[in-house]
Amino acid sequence: MTYDIIWEFRVPKPSLDAFEAAYGPDGTWARLFARAPGFVEVELLRCAEEEGRYLTIDRWVSRRLFETFQEEFADDYRELDKTLEDLIMIETRLGAFENVRASELASDT
């Protein structure tokens, strides 16, 4: 099972390239997350119907490991968030989700 945090972003046209670089799978956020145990990956999805609309999926092994990351890297997280805030018009946390199929497989064993 994984613990996935999903965010929606609205990005102004002049910031699209910089946003994709920072929020993509090899970007600044992924490098910060990778410093913590339990981080799996960041997925960046670009809307095919609306320019400047993105989703990110921050994937962790478990909620507990994500919460440990939040505690241990709180200052670094806030600093990076502040540094990149000018790239974004709107940022919305859609929620945290667990992979249903992975949960089903785990319960079958």
Short descriptors:
5 helices, 30% strand, four-stranded antiparallel beta sheet, 4 strands, Alpha-Beta Plaits, single chain, 109 residues, alpha+beta
Question: What does this protein structure show overall?
Answer:
The protein is an alpha+beta fold. The protein has a single domain (3-93), classed as Alpha-Beta Plaits. The chain has helices at 16-23, 28-33, 63-72, 74-84, 100-108, and strands spanning 3-10, 39-46, 53-60, 90-98. A 4-stranded antiparallel sheet has the order 2-3-1-4. β2 and β3 form a beta hairpin. The longest helix is centred in the last third of the chain and has 11 residues, at 74-84. It starts with a strand and ends with a helix.
Q: Quote the distance from N terminus to C terminus.
A: 13 Å
Helix content: 40-55%
What's the CATH architecture? 2-Layer Sandwich
Order of helices and strands: EHHEEHHEH
Taking all Cα atoms into account, the compactness measure Rg is 15 Å
Strand content: 25-35%
Residue stretches low in confidence (pLDDT < 50, at least 5 long) are none
Shape: globular
CATH class: Alpha Beta
Number of domains: 1
Largest sheet: 4 strands, antiparallel
Count of β-strands: 4
- Helix-and-strand structural type: alpha+beta
**How would you write the strand order of the largest sheet?**
2-3-1-4
Task: From the 3D structure, determine the CATH topology.
Answer: Alpha-Beta Plaits
Helices and strands in order:
Blueprint: E1 3-10, H1 16-23, H2 28-33, E2 39-46, E3 53-60, H3 63-72, H4 74-84, E4 90-98, H5 100-108
Antiparallel strand pairs: 1-3, 1-4, 2-3
